[in-house]
Every structure is written in structure tokens, then in C-alpha cells.
């Protein structure tokens, strides 16, 4: 009989009083899903904060907001800076900590599930240290949504949490595929189109225009785009614009008209309709909830 390896975890409590550490109990629903949240949090740490562990059946996302941290994986050392993403296999020995003389603020989530180990193994083929991301605002939004969902625990939060984790993992994997397979023509072409959408989301964009930029036929481009992103071209454009509008609602006092036009949405009315259809609330309600509670309530 194989002897079960003992879980080891040790940490210091050098974080601010307003830091959040949330433990999440599993339910019959969560255990049946591809992914489930075990813990989540929002830490504002200061030296000599550290965590070290091994043999824990969990994966952990860490997204750095401010300051500087460090990660040790075996004999490898990594510096962790703002807008970088860590995906740590907590079964393997590791230690992360606030850099000497620094502070380190980060969002984090521990998760597991039937699909977790397979995804981690796939991602580790490309990178074991910090991941860079082209859209850090999206990573932050996903992690804040996970924290909010599991704080409120409204009906269906387990299903929504699993879907958000899937989006996070898929996004990291797609980005690594695009960056590390430059010789693959279709991947390179799609990467160019995705970059163009991110840079020109406020402008009029069409399937034909993006296919031409990618150097592919319109129909082949549309099929490959959906296969790799899980979304149609138009859905991806709308989602990109809507996420940027949400960021402006949170972080600025701009009017709805100004936000709509700056994000490529043709009117405040269209923006309102998009919010009602896709978020289940109006832009004003979204802004008010962020101002009063730090995040919108999950849509049921």
C-alpha cells in the first residue's frame, strides 16, 4: 500500500487587518463540477510575510496588484511583479514571500477538481514561473468575481465559480500557445487578430476586416477563432468592449455616453441593453454596487 504523503504548510501572518482570507466548504454540487474553490483572498502583505507548503492537493492562482514578491520552486527563484500571474501546483514543494523591504498586494484563489491536474500539467509544459498577460484587467476581474461569488454564496455560485476558473485556465493556456508556437500559421494569424481587437476595440471591426489582417479566408478564420477561443468573433468583440466599459464604470466618473463611445459602443442605450442582457443589471447599478460593496452581486 502506498503511504500517503503528509501535507505540510507554514506561513506568517504579516498582512494588513483589511486583508481577506476566505475558506470555502465543499458542497455536493461543487464536488461534481470540473473545478471548485477551496480558499480565496485579497492580501496586503509586508515583509517578512511568507507561505511554504508541499503535498497539498490544490492549485493556486496568484495575481500581483502592487509591490513585489518572490517564488521559490525547488532550486529555481522567480521575482513576482505587478500584473504577473502565478499558477502553483501546491503538491510540489514551494515557497513564496514578500521581497525584503517591500510590500506585496495580491489576489489569490486555491482550487481543485477533476479537471485541475490535467490543466496544470498542460500549462507546465510551457512555463513554471510567472505568466505575463496581455489583459491583466481581465485576470483581476475574474479573481475578484471568484472572491465575490464565494463570499455571497448565492444559489448557483458553485457552477459560476467553476466556469470562471475554466476561463482563467483557458486564457492562460491560449496565450502560451500563441506565444510559444510562432511557426504555426493559423495560431500566429489568430494571435495577430486578437492583438488587433485589443488595440482597436473602440473602432468599427468586422469579420472580413479581421480575416484580412490574419491573412485567412473569412470562413476559415471564423471557424478557427471559435475553436480556439470558444466564442464567435462578434461575441469576443462585444465581451472585450463590455469588460472595458465595466472597468471605466468602476474606476472613473465618466458619463454613460462617454464610456460607451470610448469603448466602441455606439450609444448609452446600447450599453444599457448590453448590461441588462449579459450582466443582469444596469450600468448605474453596477457602478453603485462597486462603490458600496466592492463588486456586483452574482447573476443567478
Explain the overall architecture.
- The chain is of the alpha+beta class.
- The chain has 2 domains: 8-178, Jelly Rolls (Sandwich), CATH 2.60.120; 184-293, Homeodomain-like (Arc Repressor Mutant, subunit A).
- The chain is built from 11 helices and 10 strands.
- It has helices spanning 28-31, 116-124, 136-152, 157-180, 185-199, 207-214, 218-229, 233-251, 256-262, 268-279, 283-293; strands at residues 8-11, 20-23, 36-46, 50-54, 59-67, 69-73, 76-80, 85-89, 94-98, 103-112.
- The chain has a 5-stranded antiparallel sheet with strand order 1-4-9-6-7, with no helix packed on it. The chain has a 5-stranded antiparallel sheet with strand order 2-3-10-5-8.
- Helix 4 packs across helix 5 (185-199), helix 5 (185-199) crosses helix 6 and helix 6 crosses helix 7 (218-229).
- The longest helix has 24 residues, at 157-180.
- Residues 180-184 have low confidence and may be disordered.
The chain-level structural class is alpha+beta
User: How big is the Rg?
Assistant: 20 Å
What percentage of residues falls in helices of 4 or more residues? 40-55%
- Strand order within the widest beta sheet: 1-4-9-6-7
CATH architecture assignment name of the largest domain:
Sandwich
CATH class of the largest domain: Mainly Beta
Number of helices: 11
CATH superfamily of the largest domain: Regulatory protein AraC
- On the 0 to 100 scale, the average pLDDT is 87
In percent, how much strand structure appears in the residues? 15-25%
Amino acid at each position: 500500500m502506498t503511504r500517503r504523503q503528509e501535507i505540510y504548510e507554514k506561513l506568517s501572518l504579516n498582512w494588513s487587518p483589511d486583508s481577506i482570507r476566505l475558506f470555502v466548504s465543499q458542497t455536493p454540487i461543487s464536488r461534481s463540477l470540473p473545478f471548485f474553490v477551496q480558499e480565496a483572498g485579497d492580501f496586503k502583505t509586508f515583509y517578512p510575510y511568507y507561505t511554504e507548503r508541499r503535498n497539498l492537493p490544490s492549485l493556486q492562482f496568484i495575481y500581483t496588484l502592487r509591490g513585489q514578491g518572490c517564488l521559490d520552486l525547488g532550486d529555481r527563484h522567480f521575482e513576482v511583479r505587478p500584473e504577473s500571474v502565478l499558477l502553483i501546483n501546491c503538491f510540489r514543494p514551494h515557497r513564496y514571500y514578500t521581497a525584503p523591504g517591500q510590500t506585496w498586494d495580491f489576489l489569490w484563489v486555491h482550487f481543485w477538481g477533476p479537471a485541475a491536474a490535467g490543466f496544470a500539467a498542460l500549462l507546465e509544459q510551457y512555463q513554471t514561473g510567472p505568466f505575463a498577460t496581455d489583459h491583466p484587467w481581465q485576470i483581476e476581474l475574474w479573481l475578484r468575481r471568484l472572491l465575490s461569488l464565494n463570499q455571497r454564496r448565492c444559489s448557483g455560485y458553485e457552477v459560476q465559480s467553476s466556469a470562471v476558473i475554466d476561463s482563467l485556465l483557458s486564457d492562460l493556456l491560449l496565450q502560451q500557445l500563441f506565444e510559444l508556437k510562432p511557426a504555426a500559421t493559423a495560431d500566429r494569424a489568430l494571435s495577430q487578430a486578437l492583438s488587433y481587437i485589443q488595440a482597436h476595440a473602440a473602432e468599427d471591426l468586422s469579420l472580413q476586416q479581421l480575416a484580412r489582417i490574419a491573412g485567412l479566408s473569412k470562413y476559415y478564420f471564423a471557424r478557427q477563432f471559435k475553436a480556439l477561443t470558444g466564442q464567435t468573433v462578434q461575441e469576443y468583440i462585444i465581451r472585450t468592449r463590455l469588460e472595458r466599459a465595466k472597468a471605466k464604470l468602476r474606476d472613473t466618473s465618466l458619463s454613460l455616453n462617454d464610456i460607451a463611445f470610448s469603448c466602441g459602443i455606439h450609444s448609452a442605450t446600447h450599453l444599457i441593453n448590453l448590461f441588462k442582457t449579459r450582466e443582469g443589471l444596469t450600468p448605474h447599478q453596477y457602478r453603485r454596487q462597486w462603490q458600496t460593496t466592492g463588486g456586483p452581486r452574482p447573476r443567478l
